[in-house]
Amino acid sequence: GIFIPNAFSPNGDGLNDRLVIFSNGVQSVTFSVFNRWGEKIFSSDDLDVTWDGTFNGEFLLVDDYVYTISAILSDGTSLTKSGTVTLVR
């Protein structure tokens, strides 16, 4: 399956500086993050590409952000997941 932490802290200290998707047995994935107004601020189809808490090169404010994930697992099962992640500094 897939696990997303509920918070991360892109403050440059080397700990939890990027939002990482932890997965097991995922063939393909689409991961998107939205701000409180529904604007897509990050999207990736690659599990190795992680979010650094920026949008258009600017650091974002401490806030809750909504994510959506659509994945195909190695057994062919479709998985859709959504939730919130808190960006803290």
| Poorly predicted segments | none
- Mean model confidence by pLDDT: 95
**Which range best describes the helical content: under 10%, 10-25%, 25-40%, 40-55%, 55-70% or over 70%?**
under 10%
Please work out how many helical segments DSSP would assign: 0
- SS strand fraction: over 45%
What is the count of β-strands?
A: 9
Shape: globular
How widely separated are the two ends?
28 Å
Q: Radius of gyration from the CA trace?
A: 13 Å
How many strands, what sense, and barrel or not for the largest sheet? 5 strands, mixed
Q: Order of strands across the biggest sheet?
A: 2-9-8-4-5
Helix and strand sequence = EEEEEEEEE
Secondary-structure-based class equals: mainly beta
Strand and helix map with partners:
Blueprint: E1 2-3, E2 7-8, E3 22-23, E4 26-34, E5 40-44, E6 54-55, E7 58-59, E8 63-73, E9 78-87
Parallel strand pairs: 2-9
Antiparallel strand pairs: 1-3, 4-5, 4-8, 6-7, 8-9
